[in-house]
Every structure is written in structure tokens, then in C-alpha cells.
Amino acid sequence: MKIIHISAECYPIAKVGGLADVVGALPKYQNTLGHPSSVIMPFYDNKYTQEHTFEKVYEAEFNLGPNYYVFSVLKTKDSDLDIEAYFIDIPELLYKNYVYSVDDTKRFIAFQIAALDWIKVHKQQPDIIHCHDHHTGLISFMLQECFDYQVLNTIPVITTIHNAQYQGWFGYDKLHLIPDFNEEKIGLLDWNGCINPLAAAIKCAWRVTTVSPSYMEELKQNANGLESLLSHESTKCQGILNGIDTQVWNPETDDFIIENFTKDTISTGRKANKNWLCKEYNLDPNKPLFGFIGRLVSEKGVEIFPDVFKNVLETEAVSILLLGSGEKETENTLKSLKPVYNGKYNAYIGYDERLSHIIYAGTDFLLMPSKVEPCGLNQMYALRYGAIPIVRRIGGLKDTVIDIDQDGFGICHDDVSVYEVEYAIKRAVALYNDSKRFKKLQKQIMTIDHSWDVSAKAYINLYQSIN
Ligand SMILES: Nc1ncnc2c1ncn2[C@@H]1O[C@H](COP(=O)(O)OP(=O)(O)O[C@H]2O[C@H](CO)[C@@H](O)[C@H](O)[C@H]2O)[C@@H](O)[C@H]1O
Hints:
Blueprint: E1 3-6, H1 18-32, E2 37-42, H2 47-51, E3 54-64, E4 67-76, E5 84-89, H3 104-121, E6 128-132, H4 139-145, E7 157-161, E8 190-191, E9 194-195, H5 197-204, E10 207-210, H6 213-219, H7 227-232, E11 237-239, H8 266-280, E12 289-296, H9 305-315, E13 319-326, H10 328-340, E14 345-349, H11 353-362, E15 365-368, H12 378-384, E16 388-392, H13 395-400, E17 411-413, H14 418-433, H15 435-446, H16 453-465
Parallel strand pairs: 1-2, 1-6, 2-5, 6-7, 7-10, 10-11, 12-13, 12-15, 13-14, 15-16, 16-17
Antiparallel strand pairs: 3-4, 4-5, 8-9
The protein binds adenosine-5'-diphosphate-glucose (ADQ).
The site of adenosine-5'-diphosphate-glucose has 26 residues, from helix 1, strand 12, strand 13 and helix 11.
């Protein structure tokens, strides 16, 4: 089966968050299962595109409302990837030093048109088009209803919702950007008086998946306005838990970390990474270290951090290290705590792939008090690197972490409240002080298998069921 993934992000080419990790890994595992799987993504102006050379495999032009654009499809000449990636180059719209910004509607409609124009002329048509999130949400509508793409409408389209909070809404003033379609079908684009690409995908895709089974269930109650639509379409929806790329995320071979380790050398390996972090960020390596890595947005539960950190740092012998970027106000608040708790707390506000790996390898505990967590990859990376996750029981966190009091290996809490997270940290400190149990758990969690093997097969089964 020939599969094409269409996405705004793909690791290591362009990454903002977990979407990139999934699109960088799933096709790789599908290739290994014998199903040629490639990725179509925008050609951005970033480190990856600057450091590689590309060849043009196709060029054409298209209409975006009243304007004409020329686009090229590029392929790396010196690919170091295990997947085949094709890049849509529209210099005026996509070749930017960012992935997302305020002009996304126009940029991603253009991306979707160019991607489909190219698929249309492809010698070998795909058996499946797999779209990711709202940036590619109009593809299933376009195949079904736009006159230009009718020839492709027998190709099954799958949409994966990585995060239903973001839906890509836009007003009717931009309707003219979508290629011509039968206007009686306008209802397929509409949700609550706006054009809603994610809603259109839920209506038009052949199948809809979310990135964990629990999140699928939760969306029926809480989907940022799409609850009734998801309940209505529930027969074509399925939750498939994300995996992790165990080649990229492997403490034994990871080039980013300070010292590599296996479960047999975990003690010295993790110590070297923790010592490096503590030296670099002026923290005490003899205290339990609590880390956080992620986008600083409300759904990650980060608003409670200032109060949690103040309470904990004043009463417990702990160190805290945070890596994240996002909402400016949260960034500033978290930055402002640094001088107050000098030596006990530090934060790197920004994006740093290498540092994230070292934190997984060196922190004793990883905090994830998410309000919403469709799957969450960080807890799985933490497990693989022997860091104990402290998670709220929600979405994929609920599906992957079991509390130590239920014979499990993590620390779980039910609500996102200062009290509950503080209590979870206190339980973690008690666990840390029970050194024999703590060390045994660290070894045990490194052996939990969250690789893509199982889930990549689940996607193949899903594709086969509609092919
Ligand atoms: N400042 C920073 N510096 C370096 N690395 C950083 C970073 N901030 C985040 N990261 C990295 O980005 C990734 C984040 O992945 P998540 O799954 O936690 O989140 P995200 O919410 O982006 O993804 C959405 O999609 C994914 C994939 O489906 C779901 O798991 C998730 O629940 C859903 O919200 C991890 O690889 C993490 O290490």
C-alpha cells in the first residue's frame, strides 16, 4: 500500500511540537512494514533547508483566489532521512523562518492546493492520503467536492487530530481562496458560521483518528466546540495511541546527551547528565530534580507553575528546571522567578532540541500537569530515559502512566490544581528518598515498549479496512 502523509511539520525538518515527532516517525515504521510511505510538507527557510541541497521534481502554477502563484516540488539530493520527503516550495508564502504565524489561512490553503495539484500528476497514485491536523483539513473536502480534484476522489483520506483545540477557523471573506466547488456543499465547510477546516475534515475524511483512545472519548465532551460533530461522526472515529521513534530517542546512542547509558549503566549515565544540567543551570545535583519541557500554553497547565514552584521551593529540598516557550505573559512570569529562587530554580525560555534530550536523560521527574493532552510524547521519552513522569490523568497520559500506588511506575493526579501538583511533588520526593525503590523503578521504566511498532500496524489495518 502506498501512503502519502501531508503535514505542516516533520522531524527533523521542521518541528514546533509533537506533530513533527509523529510525522517524522510513523512513515518510517510504515516503510519497515513494507508500505512505501512518504511525506509532503512545506519548504520553509530553516536550518534543515539551508544545510541540504534540493532538486526540483515538478513545477506548475495555481490560482489562489484572484492571484497566480508558481510552485515547485523539491526533493533533497543529499537526504539523510529514512523517509521520502517532498517539499512544496511557494517562495512568497511558505519559505519563511517560521512554521505558523498570522497568515496561516492563505499559506496552508496554498500548500494544500499545490500538494493536490502535484498528486494529480503523480505517475503512481497513493492508496491512502493521511492528513495531519487542521492545516491539511481541507484536503478531504477538496477531493470530494472541488471540481479540479474529482479525479482523486476515490483515494481514501484519513485525518489525524493531534490537537482539537486548534481548528484553523476563518471567515467567509476568504472563501474565494478555496478552489471552485458545488456551492450546495458549503455546509461541509461550515461550523458555527465560520469555515472550519478541522470540522470539514471530520465531516469529509473517510476515517478520523486521534492520538490516544482516551482523548477520543474526551473529545465527545470537550472539543472546543466540535463535541456534537465528533459524537455524530463517532462510527468513523478511532483513537490510536502514538508511539515514539526509538532510534531517535535512545539513551544508548543519543548524540545530544552528555553520557549515553543503558538500563545497566543508568546510574552513572543519568548522574553525568544530571550533573551537567545542574552545573549549567546552577542547581544542586544532590537534590531531586524536577523538569518540565513543553509549549507554554494554557492546555499544558502551566499557569499553576508559579504558585506550585513558590510553595515547593520554600518547603522542600528540590531543584526545578523548565524548558519552554509560548505565551509571552507565562514566559515572563516563569523568567521572573529565576532571581528569586537562584540556585533552586532555572528556566530556559526558548526552543532547544538538544537541551530537551539532556533533560529527559538527567531529570529525576518530569512534570506534565496538562489540562488537555491528546497523547503526550514527553512522558514516553521520560520513561525511555529513566525519568519518572508526574502526570495528570487525562488523554494519552491516562493511557500510558500508572501510579506507583497502583503497582505502576509514575505519579498521577486527577486535577490541575496547585494543591494536587504540590502533593504529587511531595510524593515524588518521598519516592526519591526511598533510594532502593526509586532506582529499581528507573530501571523498570526504561524497558517499557512505546515504540511505533504496534501503532504503525494499527494504522495499516485501518487503511486496509477502507481500501
Ligand atoms: N521548548 C522546547 N524545546 C525543545 N523541545 C521542545 C520544547 N517544547 C516542546 N518540545 C518537544 O516537542 C514535543 C512535544 O510533544 P507533545 O506531544 O508533548 O506536545 P504537543 O502539544 O506539541 O503535540 C500535540 O501532538 C502530539 C502528537 O500527536 C500529542 O502527543 C500531544 O498530546 C498534542 O498536544 C516533544 O518532542 C518535546 O520534547
